[in-house]
Amino acid sequence: MEGSNVALMSPPIPDHPVLSEDGVVRCPWALDHPLNTRYHDTEWGVPVHGERGLFERLCLESFQSGLSWLTILKKREGFRAAFAGFDPDAVAAYTDDDHARLMRDAAIVRNRAKIGAAIENARAIVALRDDGGVDRLIWSHRPDPEPAAARLSDLPTQTTASKAMATDLKRHGFVFVGPTTCLALMQAAGLVDHHLEGCHRRGVTGS
Questions:
Q1: Contact between residue 179 and residue 61 where contact means Cβ atoms under 8 Å apart
Q2: The pTM of the whole model exceeds 0.85
Q3: d(Cα 105, Cα 82) in Å, to the nearest integer?
Q4: DSSP alpha helices (H): ranges in 65-178?
Q5: Mean pLDDT of 136-165
Q6: Which residues are the active-site residues?
């Protein structure tokens, strides 16, 4: 972190579930902003199926690389507008002019490689329709349930399953899909339940 003034530094995120002011226990990362809290309580870990939903989660997780998740949530509506509501057919048809347009769009994260990856991944999703579809591919990598982690630091950044998913996605033409991004996708789309032990959402997200 740049700067040396300790008074200006944000307090560290606790490593364990926290009792919120509303009397609900949550994963610690959900407490620093209402957008994070709402996302944690209503979406993170809830199973996602279908092309648009999975394409959105994949895009957002890819764009998040190197940034805070809160940055992505604040720009979520901008991403939805920029990528045609995450309609794979529409995004797959984007041209170089569309790429240039998105590079000027302050409502999203303007990263050339990530924008290009979103377009390429839309094309990969469309191509997958002749091979079982993206839903089947992604959900085929759902691992067996594991015991809840007690602390944030106990959660892995990648797993055997996320490595296998990354390899499979790349084989089908997807880009910007490393094992860490794939684990984040698995968490976001409900393939794994990484709510911490004691969090009110642990074990209640469905299947």
A1: no
A2: yes
A3: 8
A4: 69-74, 76-82, 88-92, 96-103, 112-128, 133-139, 160-171
A5: 97
A6: 39, 61, 69
* HSE-CB of 120 using CA atoms within 13 angstroms: 15
Can you name the residues that pair with 199 across neighbouring β-strands? none
Residue 9 has pLDDT above 80, yes or no: no
Q: HEC states along 37-64?
A: HHHHHHCCCCCCCCHHHHHHHHHHHHHH
Instruction: Name the band, by pLDDT with cuts 50, 70 and 90, for residue 206.
Output: low
Neighbouring C-alpha atoms within 13 Å toward the C-beta of 109: 24
For residue 12, the model assigns a pLDDT of 78
> How many CB atoms within 10 Å of residue 15?
13
Collapsed DSSP state (helix, strand, coil) of residue 93: coil
What local confidence, expressed as pLDDT, does residue 1 receive? 26
From the list 203, 206, 201, 189, the residue with the least C-alpha distance to 49 is: 189
Mean pLDDT of 154-179: 97
Helical (H) or strand (E) element with 116: helix 112-128
Sign of the CA dihedral with 105 first, then 109, 114, and 118 last: negative
Domains of the chain and CATH, by start: 41-188 (1.10.340.30)
User: Rounded to 5 degrees, what angle do the CA atoms 68, 26, 146 make?
Assistant: 90
Are 135 and 105 in contact by the 8 Å Cβ rule? The answer is no
